[in-house]
Design goal:
Blueprint: H1 7-34, H2 39-47, E1 53-54, H3 77-91, E2 96-98, H4 109-118, E3 122-123, E4 126-127, H5 151-171, E5 175-178, E6 183-184, H6 192-208, E7 215-219, E8 229-230, H7 235-245, E9 249-254, H8 264-273, E10 277-282, H9 299-316, E11 323-326, H10 335-354, H11 358-366, H12 370-382, H13 386-395, H14 402-409, H15 411-418
Helix pairs in contact: 1-13, 2-13, 3-10, 3-14, 5-6, 8-9, 9-10, 10-12, 11-12
Bound molecules: D-allose (AOS) and zinc ion (3 copies).
The site of one zinc ion has 5 residues, from loops.
Length: 431
């Protein structure tokens, strides 16, 4: 496997931090042992964690107002993969990439698959895009795609999704994520029930094109770009559609796609209970679909989501395997740094959730001891598992401190020289 950053540089970085890391690790190990927890088990658990990187995340996102390009932005999917390779090389937590078509459409799929393999990467769910018009496209999505009143528009949107499945098959993906911005901006603009009927009709055709071992993930979102009535606005609609379509259809929860203060962990619990939790788009938000870095605003919520996932894993065993993906927009940071940090923050929540004393929690719940039940969760959440995460990375060949190692490597300067700025590089401002 080729590495993007010189492996010697990573080893040198780790050597400098090794004594300090070992001391912190031993101290944490002692504390956890007193609680009856084995740090080695937690470290191997952390090593087993993986979250996919979105190809669109390695470029600067932009907003509806402007996009301020960063230095050395990837100009095509091959360069995006190089950046994803760095993220995984240093974090060892992101071995897969989620592609978005047509942004990432390869001229030669095999070449793309080989490139990924050479970096030790593989492809996660593929994403379709019927929320923009592409140059040369026959029908416009201005008034919807899978739900459009026009049969021609719907046929084009269905064909695009089927093309995504075909591309995904050649790339080794096993799932298609469908997010549509379809909806209405005015009361009366369309028939609310009719739009969902058309959506289901389109999705049935896409579903029929899925290979045996594939899933389709339905991603709901409260609003934007449809500001009055988004067709797939909530998990209830998503659940109903996934149920209607069949066992390969599942729901995808993007953390930023809910009304403020929504209890997302309860949505996760519901979907898991009924076998329809397909996966996640992790990010954080303060007001809406902000697409901020995971764990940057509300790490406790992220922990509570993983607490539900840990509970579901205990109940359902190996069969419970939701897909984890990041979906963020980076406007003021180096996307590689943000994605590395975010992957680690999601991994942190995963490990913290494993620290919850579930036997004690069950007793407190039984006794209606709300205070101690809440404290049991807080106790796990307050534990700084950073040494476990760092040790997991180092043991797997990653960096003790990914951002410090990345900065010292000079990667961004190097690619800035090779990738001259291109107007409009990367995707849209919609993420
Ligand atoms: C849109 O808000 C969604 O989060 C989708 O996942 C979208 O397809 C992706 O962010 C790329 O724009
Ligand atoms: Zn304004
Ligand atoms: Zn998303
Ligand atoms: Zn979004």
């Amino acid at each position: 496997m080729s590495t993007v950053i010189d492996a010697g540089q990573v080893a040198e970085h780790n050597a400098k931090l090794q004594a300090q890391l070992q001391a912190d690790y031993d101290a944490l190990g002692g504390m956890l042992a007193r609680r009856g927890q084995d740090i080695e088990e937690l470290t191997s658990l952390a090593q087993g964690f993986a979250v996919a990187v979105p190809s669109w995340g390695v470029g600067t996102g932009g907003t509806r107002f402007a996009r301020f390009p960063g230095r050395g932005e990837p100009r095509n999917v091959f360069e995006k993969l190089d950046d994803c390779g760095v993220i995984n090389q240093l974090t060892r937590a992101t071995p897969s990439v989620s592609l978005h078509f047509p942004w990432d459409k390869p001229t030669d799929a095999k070449e793309l698959r080989d490139k990924a393999a050479s970096l030790g990467l593989f492809f996660d769910a593929v994403n379709s895009n019927t929320f923009q018009d592409q140059v040369g496209q026959e029908q416009t999505y201005k008034y919807g795609s899978l739900t459009a009143g026009s049969a021609e528009v719907r046929a084009q949107a269905v064909a695009h999704n089927i093309e995504c499945i075909e591309l995904g098959k050649t790339l080794g993906s096993r799932a298609l994520t469908v997010w549509v911005g379809d909806g209405a901006n005015f009361p009366g603009q369309h028939n609310l029930r009719g739009a969902l009927e058309r959506y289901l009709d389109s999705m049935r055709k896409i579903y029929a094109a899925l290979p045996e071992d594939w899933n389709v993930f339905i991603e709901h979102k409260l609003f934007e770009p449809a500001f009055y009535a988004t067709t797939i606005a909530d998990w209830g609609t998503s659940f109903a559609c996934a149920t209607e379509l069949g066992p390969k259809a599942k729901c995808l929860v993007d953390l930023g796609h809910h009304a403020p203060n929504t209890n997302i962990e309860m949505i996760v619990a519901r979907l898991a209970q009924f076998g329809k939790l397909g996966g996640f788009h992790f990010n954080d938000s303060k007001y809406g679909d902000d697409d901020l870095d995971s764990g940057s605003i509300n790490p406790f919520q992220l922990f509570l989501v993983f607490n539900e996932l840990a509970d579901a894993a205990l109940r359902d065993g190996a069969a419970f395997k939701p897909s984890y993906m990041l979906d963020q927009s980076h406007n003021v940071t180096d996307p590689v740094e943000s994605l590395m940090n975010s992957a680690v923050e999601v991994q942190r929540a995963f490990v913290q959730a494993a620290l919850v004393d579930r036997a004690a929690l069950a007793v407190y719940q039984q006794q209606n001891d709300a205070l101690q039940a809440a404290q049991t969760l807080k106790h796990a959440f307050r534990t700084d598992v950073s040494p476990i995460l760092a040790m997991a990375r180092v043991r797997a060949g990653g960096a003790a401190d990914p951002v410090a190692c990345y900065r010292a490597s000079g990667y961004r300067d190097r690619v800035a020289g090779m990738r001259p700025a291109k107007a409009g590089a990367s995707s849209s401002g919609i993420v």
